[in-house]
Amino acid sequence: MSSHTATSTQPLSTPIVLTIAGSDSGGGAGIQADIKAISATGSFACSAITAITAQNTLGVSAIFPIPLEHIEKQLDAVFTDLNVIAVKVGMLADTDIIKVVAAKIKQYNPQFVVIDPVMVATSGDMLLKESAVATLKSVLFPLADLITPNLPEGAALTGMSVPQDELDMEKMIGQLRDLNVNAVLLKGGHLEANQNSNDLLIFPDEVHSLSAKRIATKNTHGTGCTLSSAIASYLAQGNDLIQSVKLGKRYISEAIAHADELSIGQGHGPVNHFYDGHLAVR
After folding, report:
1. Is the pLDDT of residue 118 over 90?
2. How far is it, in rounded angstroms, from Cα 33 to Cα 273?
3. CB-CB neighbours of 242 under 10 Å
């Protein structure tokens, strides 16, 4: 009879990412997209829901902000038990919610914070009042390692016109730097006439240009949520900011490229978060 000696192994530290955002009942954006992206890129996702939307691939029909006390309790529950390395912040419906989230991030001081400033609807309508935008800029942005505005959101943050080409994007760099954030990823996905989707990663003293081939598909619901969550996931795994953004852009590009393999809904469907199984890059 053979015998062997049992050895105990220390489990590897699990990279944990908290998403603070609204729920999308259609499953393509918001908390649902965040959890899929974080999971697909190899981290563990937890969440605090700030609002419940009635939403599908055709649009949003209702928004119910979660009471402040319950947002606080969700954040306390997660932070006091789980070793949250990175936080992704998405939809914050009003000034009071922004203040609560900022206070809790200050209290628990996670290592990384990525903010996707969900401010402008696809229709062009503002989702946040001007007072809430001011609070976002003054209270929450100083806590961020990265903010990830698209072009309409960049315009709303700077007071400039929505860029119509890459030269307009470059003209926005100075105003975005004036927001006094660590880094800004200005996403050029709205420049649909371009063959490539070009983004600018803006630091106080340098700018990195990131390019990916533009994919012809209507299934792009939740791309901003997905990208910012993937970046937070890669940060939690120990990658630096530039590498995390590059890996995140590669992930979202592939998820868009495989989006038409899904048939979800009658409108703008989601990207394919799980196009290639487990995608952790360490």
Report:
1. no
2. 8
3. 14
The catalytic site residues sit at 187, 220, 222-225
CA neighbours closer than 13 Å in the CB half-sphere of residue 203? 9
From the centroid of its chain, how far is CA 87?
Answer: 9
Q: What is the mean pLDDT of residues 85-113?
A: 96
Confidence of residue 281 (pLDDT cuts 50, 70, 90): very low
Buried b (16+ CB within 10 A) or exposed e, 60-93: beeeebbeeeebbebbeebbeeeebbbbbbbbbb
CA–CA separation, 39 and 253 (whole Å): 17
Strands 16-24 and 207-213: unpaired
- Measured distance CA(183)–CA(200) in Å, rounded: 10
275 burial type by CB count under 10 A (0-12 exposed, 13-18 middle, 19+ buried): middle
Separation between Cα atoms, residue 211 and residue 151, nearest integer Å? 16
Q: Which CATH superfamily is domain 16-261 in?
A: Ribokinase (3.40.1190.20)
pLDDT of the residue at 193? 66
